[in-house]
Amino acid sequence: MPAALPAEAVAPLMRGIAVLRALSDAGGRMDLSDLVRSTGLARSTADRVAATLARMGYVRLRAHEVRLAPRLMELGNAYLAALSLPRRLGPLAERLADELDEPVSLAVPDRDGIRFVHQTTRRRAMSPAFRIGDLLPYERTAAGAVFAAGWTERTWASRSGDVPGAEDGGTPFGAGTSTAEEEAFRRRAAGSGEAGWALDDQLIEPGLVAVAVPVHDREGSVVCAVSVVSHTSRHTADSLGRAVLPTVRETVAAMEEELRRDGPAAGAPAPDGLAHWTTASKQELGAEFVESLARGLTVITAFGEGRPELSLTAVAEATGLARATARRALITLEHLGYVGSGDRVFRLTPRVLSLGCPALSRTTLPDIAVPHMAELVRRVHDSASLAVLDGDDIRYTARVATERITSVDITIGTRFPAYAASMGRVLLAGLPADERADRLARTALRPLTPRTVTDPARLLGLLDRVRDEGFALVDEELEEGLRSLAVPVRDHTGRIVAALNVAMHTARRTTGECLAEVLPPLRATAAAIESDLHIAGRFARVPEV
C-alpha cells in the first residue's frame, strides 16, 4: 500500500518527475499529446513543465515533441558520484572484461530490483549489454540472488505481499511471478549464500546467461554485485561459471581491497548560485517557468563525490535555497523514493538513475552534437559538420546542411585526406608531435588543388600553429572554391575526440570575415557540445560515431 502523500510535498516537483519518468520509459522522446495522456496532466501544465525542463537543459522541445537532453544525466551523475563505486571499482571491472572478453556489470540493490551502475561492453554482434540505470527484477537475475541471500524473513514476506512496508522499503515480486518461481528464487538465494556466487540461466532473457559475485565493504556488507554476462552461443550457464569464476573472484578480492582503503575526501561544494539562477529564470520567463520544480531538482545536484550524505543545512547551503524550501523538496523526493534518510542526514537512492539514464546512457557524440550544430547553422547560414580521425583520413559522423542553391554536398561517412582538410588538421594537431610527424611521413601527400600544401615540413608548421591557436582555416586546398574553418571538440579528459567545422564557398566570406563572423559562434558551439559530452561521458562511454 503506497505511503500517504506528505502535507509538505511539492506538487510541481512531483509533476516534473512524472514527466521525466514518462519520457524515460518511452525511450527518451514523446509527443506532447502522448505525454499528457501518459501523465494525466492538463495540457497547459505539461507545457509549463516541459518549458521549465527545457530551460534547465534537461529536455529539448521540437515542434510538438519533447526529447530528453544529455544534461539530464547530471542527476544520475550526482548519485553515481556520491556512491563512488563506479569511479573506484569501474577500472577493475573494465580490466576483468578485457581478461574474459565478456561484458561486465556492477549492480546495486534498489527497492524494486537490481539497478546497474557500471557497464563494460564488448564489440561483438552478439554481445549482450544492459544500460546504466536499467532496473531488472531480483528474481530473474544472478545479482538479485546475491542480494537476496541476506534478506530477512520479514523482507521475504513483504516481497510476497504478505507484510506491507518491510525494513528495506521493498515492493512485491514482479507481476506474473508465480509461487513456484518465488520458491525457486528462494532456493537460488540460499544457494548463493552458501556458495558465494549466483547463476542466471536464461531467466532474464532467452539466450543470456550470467554469473554474479558479491562485493563487500570493510564492514562486511554487500554493496554491489559483479556480473559477467554471456550468450548461449558462447557459453552454457555451467561452462560460464567454470570459465570465469576464478578470475571474477580475484577481481572481487581486489575490489574489496580498494573499498578497505579510505573513501574519497569531502568533495568540492555543489555548484552555487542555483537558487539565484532559478529566480532569474522565473523573472525572465514568468508563468512558463515552474520555479519550485527547478529548485526541487537542483537539490539532487547538491550530492556528489565526497558528499554521499548531507544534512538539511548542508543541502540548503549547497543550493542556496532556504531551509524550508530544501526541506520540502527533500520530503517530496523521499516520498517518491529518490532520497533516503536516517540519523539526520539524507542520501540519494539508485532510483535517481531512472530519470533518463537508461535512455541517455548510449547517446553518441553525433546525437549530442547535432542539436547544437543546427543552432550554429541558423546563426551563420552555412553548413556545419563533425568528423573523427580514421587512419590517415577524416570521416564525417554528423552534418547539418544549410538550404542554399550553392552548397557543399557531403554525406555521413564521407572521407577526405586529413592533411588537406580543416577538421583533419585540427585532429592531427591534437596528436603528440612525434605521431604527427610519423603520420605525415607515411601519407602520400598529393595536391588536390593548386593550393594544397604537400610539403611535410610546412604542414608540420601549420599543425603547430593550429595547436597553438585552437582552430584551422583551410582555403581551397581540399577543393577549389571551398573555404573551411574548424575547431576541436574535447572529452572530459581534454583529449580531442572530434572536430567541428563550418564550410562555405569562397564567395560567401573573406578569410578575415570567417575569423570575425564564424569563429566565435563556432567555438561557442564546440563548447556547448563539450559541456553535454562531459556530463554524458562522466560515467558512461560516449561512442564517437
How many individual β-strands?
17
- Give the radius of gyration: 26 Å
Pick out the low-confidence regions: 164-169
Shape: globular
Amino-to-carboxy terminus distance:
46 Å
The strand line-up of the biggest sheet is: 6-5-4-9-8-7
Class by SSE composition: alpha+beta
In terms of topology, how is this protein built?
Elements: H1 11-25, E1 29-31, H2 32-39, H3 43-55, E2 59-62, E3 65-68, H4 73-83, H5 85-100, E4 104-110, E5 113-120, E6 135-136, H6 142-148, H7 153-159, H8 179-195, E7 198-201, E8 208-216, E9 222-231, H9 237-260, H10 274-285, H11 291-300, H12 312-319, H13 323-336, E10 339-342, E11 345-348, H14 357-360, H15 365-380, E12 383-390, E13 393-400, E14 415-417, H16 422-429, H17 433-442, H18 456-469, E15 472-475, E16 482-490, E17 496-505, H19 511-536
Antiparallel strand pairs: 1-3, 2-3, 4-5, 4-9, 5-6, 7-8, 8-9, 10-11, 12-13, 12-17, 13-14, 15-16, 16-17
Helix pairs in contact: 1-3, 1-11, 5-9, 6-8, 10-11, 11-13, 12-13, 15-19, 16-18, 17-18
What does this structure look like?
There is one protein chain. Helix 1 packs across helix 3, helix 5 packs antiparallel against helix 9 and helix 12 packs across helix 13. The protein is built from 19 helices and 17 strands. The protein has 545 residues and is α+β, with helices and mostly antiparallel strands. The longest helix has 26 residues. Helix content is 44%, strand content 19%. The strands form 4 sheets. It has a 6-stranded antiparallel beta sheet. A 6-stranded antiparallel beta sheet has the order 14-13-12-17-16-15, sandwiched between helices. Strand 7 and strand 8 form a beta hairpin.
